[in-house]
Specification:
Blueprint (H helix, E strand, L loop, with lengths): L10 E8 L2 H12 L2 E3 L9 E5 L2 E8 L8 E7 L3 H10 L3 E9 L3 E7 L5 E7 L14 E8 L2 H12 L2 E6 L6 E6 L10 E5 L4 H4 L4 E7 L3 H10 L3 E9 L3 E7 L5 E7 L4
């Protein structure tokens, strides 16, 4: 589960790049109850999505001809310059140089050796997400990658992540979960999936995908369709885990929604 203390290497931020910020705000507002707080010129118009006054993520405009609409996940680092060096040493690369974001913190963007983009956030005034694990907020993260063992080695070298092989109840499928260094599997925050196991996601190439908690997966998917989105992967029940589905917003960004079972 996500830890609100955001230990090193854990997800601590998520944001959306979209060609239509107002349209995205209307979609996610209708779907998850988010409100949009636009950003000023000092942050390039980078805005915030909030839920009941708590920040659930960021949003920024991206030119449609330059980049596809997508969600990005960020992982906590106490020293983003040191993290950048570890990324390069482990075979990844920087998408842009780490930079200061006013007094809020420092950010960097990277790609792993498999080609999946991820962000890193070093907090200052902004410690990260204001709410997690509650309906309408970040619950889980999943990497679709061509090589799960290679991805596990890379992120282990960069963040110290540990992995756990989880046998899915009633199946022969083994799901690889990840958790921060110095913690146990009970603080797993995400999973690594071979792209070929989910053809609908394989077509998108290597990528990280956020999961947002909801009270009713079927109702949420139906609402997404009414609001102009689409069902990317039909709702399914995972024994011992919960019900989930993949959704695409009206501008092509994919994310998942999940109703987890109570933790034992």
């Amino acid at each position: 589960m996500l830890n609100p203390a955001f230990p090193d290497g854990a997800p601590n931020w998520v944001d959306l790049g979209t060609p239509d910020v107002d349209g995205a705000a209307a979609f996610y507002g209708g779907l998850l109850g988010w409100e949009h707080a636009p950003g000023g010129p000092e942050v390039g118009g980078y805005g915030m999505f909030t839920l009941d006054g708590h920040t659930v993520g960021g949003v920024m405009a991206v030119p449609e001809e330059q980049s596809s609409s997508a969600w990005s996940l960020y992982f906590h680092s106490p020293d983003i310059s040191a993290t950048a060096e570890l990324v390069t040493r482990a075979g990844g690369r920087s998408a842009f140089e780490p930079m200061d974001v006013l007094d809020y913190g420092r950010m960097g963007g990277f790609t792993d050796p498999g080609g999946a983009y991820f962000g890193v956030w070093q907090p200052r005034q902004n410690p990260g997400l204001g709410v997690i694990q509650q309906p309408g907020s970040l619950l889980w993260a999943e990497l679709y990658t061509p090589d799960v063992p290679a991805a596990a080695r890379f992120f282990g070298d960069v963040f110290g992540w540990k992995t756990e092989a989880l046998e899915v109840e009633g199946t022969e499928y083994v799901y690889t979960t990840v958790h921060p260094a110095g913690t146990g599997p009970e603080l797993s925050f995400g999973g690594l999936v071979t792209m070929g196991d989910v053809p609908a996601e394989a077509a998108r190439g290597p990528h990280w995908m956020p999961y947002f908690a909801v009270e009713d997966v079927t109702a949420t998917v139906d609402a997404a369709k009414r609001l102009g989105g689409a069902e990317a992967l039909p709702a399914m029940e995972v024994p011992g885990v919960g019900t989930m589905a993949n959704v695409t917003d009206p501008f092509g960004a994919v994310f998942a929604v999940m109703k987890p079972l109570p933790r034992q």
